[in-house]
UniProtKB/TrEMBL annotation:
Full-protein residues shown: 7 to 332 of 900
Protein name as catalogued: histidine kinase
Source domain of life: Bacteria
Residue runs in coiled coils: 285-316
Length: 326
């Protein structure tokens, strides 16, 4: 059969410095290892929407065959994602959304659902009475907006549970360590903290401990990654009461991209599921994700060996050919 054409995929990633983004990239690379005909170029916007705009413009200028974008904030990236789409470059939106429907496909979680699930779980933990504090992700980034919306929707169904304070975070633990202490001192009777991701939830735990409140305050995060220092371990150690699984979608994004590039049928909205991970199921979750990680490593090793053999085979064939020709 004819060899597959070379495809150039450009990926505009909002940041690469946390474990969740690294897990996303690992998933993408695993999937890409099956497609040596893909040239993959990732540009890291370092949590900066201006820089991300420039990088997306550059990828458009290079006329990549397909663009994957995980927008730092929705507003600043919407017009550019639309422009790429309107110029005929397929656009896959990953995890964080723009505010437009002009894209080829979306891969990621339902963040309103993440917020709602967290809210109902919180109310159940508190036996429907208590004071809650929320730590949000970057303003204007769609998971922060949607998790907040869903969380409030769920709490509205439980009048005994009050949202007493909010801390505007930026997905990063450092800002929680800076901003939470004063807010928590003003609300020492807080019963529960919902943080929009596990790194911020972990920082909240640190602050609660410093103020001698770690025993009373229950903390819920989002992401549920395996590996040292990540969500599953924080739940196992009891620092977090629970975390909401938020799959990275890295593998699905590459799979969807390839279907689009090959003009195969694909799904426009690829919504990945969430679930509560707490002490009841964290052990099972960890075993499963570790098994998956081992399988992923095995597959990549086999792929590498296979490619090595192909190379050797090709050069042997060349030698035989040269011998016969001489
Ligand atoms: C990683 C992250 C995750 C969060 C997601 C939301 O950069 O902050 O922790 O779930 O982005 O887009």
């Amino acid at each position: 059969s004819a060899p597959e054409p070379v495809y150039r995929i450009g990926f505009s990633q909002c940041n690469t410095d946390d474990a969740w983004r690294r897990a996303m990239l690992a998933g993408m690379e695993k999937e890409l290892s099956f497609h040596p005909n893909v040239r993959f170029r990732m540009l890291d916007a370092h949590n900066n929407s201006d820089l991300q705009q420039r990088q997306v413009r550059e990828l458009i200028r290079q006329r990549v065959d397909l663009l994957i974008i995980s927008p730092n904030q929705s507003g600043p990236l919407t017009a550019l994602a639309e422009a790429a789409y309107n110029q005929g470059i397929p656009v896959v939106i990953l995890d964080r959304r723009t505010t437009s429907r002009l894209y080829t496909a979306y891969v990621g979680g339902n963040n309103q659902e993440v917020g709602r699930t967290a809210g109902h779980y919180a109310a159940q933990l508190l036996r429907r009475r208590g004071r809650v504090l929320q730590i949000l992700g970057t303003p204007g980034s769609s998971p922060a907006t949607d998790r907040d919306l869903g969380f409030r929707q769920a709490l509205a169904a439980h009048p005994g549970v009050q949202l007493v304070a909010q801390v505007e975070g930026d997905w990063q633990p450092a800002s929680v360590l800076r901003r939470l202490p004063a807010v928590l001192r003003a609300h020492p009777d807080t019963d529960l903290i919902f943080a929009h991701n596990d790194p911020m939830a972990q920082a909240a735990y640190q602050v609660a401990r410093q103020q001698g409140l770690a025993r009373r305050i229950r903390i819920i995060g989002v992401d549920g990654l395996s590996g040292p220092g990540n969500g599953l371990q924080l739940v196992e150690d009891g620092a977090l009461k629970a975390t909401l699984l938020y799959p990275t979608g890295g593998e699905e994004a590459i799979r969807t991209a390839l279907r689009i590039l090959r003009h195969e049928p694909y799904v426009k909205e690829n919504v990945l599921n969430t679930m509560v991970i707490d002490s009841a199921n964290v052990g099972t979750m960890r075993t499963q994700t570790e098994e998956l990680a081992t399988q992923r490593r095995d597959i990549q090793q086999q792929q590498r060996r296979l490619r090595e053999q192909m190379r050797r085979y090709a050069s042997q064939k060349m030698t035989v050919y040269l011998l016969l020709a001489s």
